[in-house]
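Many introductory courses stop at the sequence. We go one step further.
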Amino acid sequence: QVQLVESGGGLVQAGGSLRLACKVSNNRFKIMDMGWYRQAPGKQRDLVAGINPFGSTNYADSVKARFTISRDNAKNMLYLQMNSLKPEDTAVYYCNIVPSPTGLFESWGQGTQVTVSS
């Protein structure tokens, strides 16, 4: 029912910036808790940033003060501004809802690759 399409990844040197975007094909987007997730090689998929319908945010400690999550409810868009990128940020980045403890994720999109070189 919900389709998720990520874009904006690429190859960047350490210290550089990227802006990721996620298009959500569901008009209930504006009432959903949304998040950006990433999965590095050999690692599990982790939530790095979340945002509620009113713009309240939280971040994993590893990205705090460097990444900013935002949303445009009128356009069903979710964004992640990434500054001061580090090689450890290299991963495939995905958007999805932030489900309740007993809830389910929507089907995952293809993600967008972020590669940070030294």
